[in-house]
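Homework help board

Subject: predicted structure for assignment chain

Our instructor gave us this sequence and asked us to write out the predicted structure in token form, then describe one feature. I got the tokens but I'm not sure how to describe them. Can anyone check?
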Amino acid sequence: MSSHPLRIAVAGASGRMGRMLIEAIAASGDCQLTAALDQPQSPSLGQDAAAFLGQSSGVAIESDLRSALAKADFLIDFTRPEGTLAHLQVGAELGVKVVIGTTGFDDAGKAAIAAAAQETAVVFAPNMSVGVNVTLKLLELAAQALPDYDIEIVEAHHKHKVDAPSGTALKMGEVIAAAQNTALADRAVYERYGHTGARKAGSIGFATIRGGDIVGDHTVLFAGTGERIEISHKSSSRAGYAEGSVQAVRFLAKHSAGLFDMFDVLKLR
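My token output:
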């Protein structure tokens, strides 16, 4: 580890994603877990954040936001929109840079993130996976080359996911629409039931599957006359999200303020 490790706080530390983040930080070589946050009612409060690894990190899971962020230069947050926004506000006040992997924000929430990014550096992306973001780039290229093809987006996640379509699926739609100089809001079809009539030209359809422990599957279908192209990404674990988040922290270390996404982190623009 370098003499000046990147000091990171993790929100939702006792959850599945929080634990993946803690494991990735421990394995990074240049990052250090210095704070671990969870809800006040969490049974994990007071426990060592790396106990699940059979290790001692010297960091106890706590619920005091200001106390935790005072120990860190970066926060990685994969929680819920209301929690993330509260964490972000305090982070901006304290000069903590923030990686946001939370999904399900409404327009007001996105505006609040943009406002906070004027005070501190933020990476905000619906999916931190390197593979997913390369997939988004492929979708951008396909959308530009196939302007007249019908487009459908199918996503599948575990039964506990609370928002639909997934943030990643929506981002895919946004990337495709932008590549064709349009807005997703003008083209998206989120529901089909009953006598819907023929497919509306130019629409982008979404289908959502929820069940079991599916980590995250996304497929975009470009259907033309006589052929179709499918571009898919399937996650078998959350490790890719955690590794991408650590890369985002390294990126933020070079910036004092501004709103960025994983295309910026991975130089895909």
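Reply (TA_rk): Your tokens look well-formed. For the description, you could write something like this. Helices lie at 16-28, 65-69, 81-94, 107-116, 130-145, 167-179, 239-252, 262-265. That's the kind of observation they're looking for.
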